[in-house]
Amino acid sequence: xxxxRWGILATGGIAGAFASDLRxxxxxxxxxxxxxxxxxxxxxxxxDIPRAHSSYEDLVADPDVDIIYVSTPHPMHHENxxxxxxxxxxxxxxxxxxxxxxxxxxxxALAAERGLLVMEAMWTRYLPHMVRIRELIxxxxxxxxRAVSADHTQLLPSDPAHRLNALELGGxxxxxxxxxxxxxxxxxxxxxxxxxxxxxxxxxxxxxEVATVMTHDGGxxxxxxxxxxxxxxxxxxxxxxxxxxxxxxxxxxxTTFRLVLPDGTVQESYxxxxxxxxxxxxALAAERLVSEGTLAGDILPIAESxxxxxxxxxxxxxxxxxxxxxxx
Length: 328
What we know:
Layout: E1 5-9, H1 13-25, E2 28-33, H2 37-47, E3 51-53, H3 56-60, E4 67-70, H4 77-86, E5 90-94, H5 101-114, E6 118-121, H6 128-138, E7 145-153, H7 173-189, E8 192-201, E9 207-216, E10 221-227, E11 236-240, E12 244-247, E13 256-260, E14 266-271, H8 280-292, H9 302-319
Parallel strand pairs: 1-2, 1-4, 2-3, 4-5, 5-6, 7-10
Antiparallel strand pairs: 7-11, 8-9, 9-10, 11-12, 12-13, 13-14
Helix pairs in contact: 1-8, 4-5, 5-9, 7-9
């Protein structure tokens, strides 16, 4: 490992979960930045962080920080990640990676120009149960994969002024929740060859439900569902000619799965044993990539994150969601 020194940009709930998991993994968390000194100080005290900065600019200028975890809402990811890259810091940015593909391409180009890692914090990809699932697929345990399905549904605040519902703040179920099943489908089947999407919009113009049907190379099909107004089972399945994998709720967090033969025989049962929430695995991967000099990424290459943003752009176009700043 490189022993990277981590700084956390912003102090919301996801930042707290990440900080806790960094501590669990014994990684070097040295600084936090917020828009107020009070917030930064409170966060630093909570997680025993040596330095608390009252601005994002001061955080990224800190010479004792090597890598920045961007934990702001996704409409701010491009601006915040770009700021960090411009100051010579590696970046792990929360998902959805950006607001759209154009912003993602800009970060990809800047990171390549500066010789830095920029990586989407799609933590699910790095969880032990997903590592085992990819091993089973690579070993041919499922035969030919014919179909993949996944959902991410939650009962979230319905207040039109809430960030999740405000179009000007990138609100909507797709980028907050749908990114999980879409990225999962990409992980298993690769890029879609066709996309069909339907959605339901709320009074603000943001999406509350989105369903997709996609086709992939070789003819495989996938389905996904996201909703911010109702809570479903949050399960996923990968169906092959030789076996299927059923991933239990909540499939995108540390969980259990079964490898099931066509006659119903359970050939393998897997239970995740993870300390904390499991966000440390993506941080460990980032440190490994920097150590190896594999700055384009491997489990989730930056080129794939960019392409996934393109898939989300197309889904939004089909359901009629466009963010105000995209009108410029």
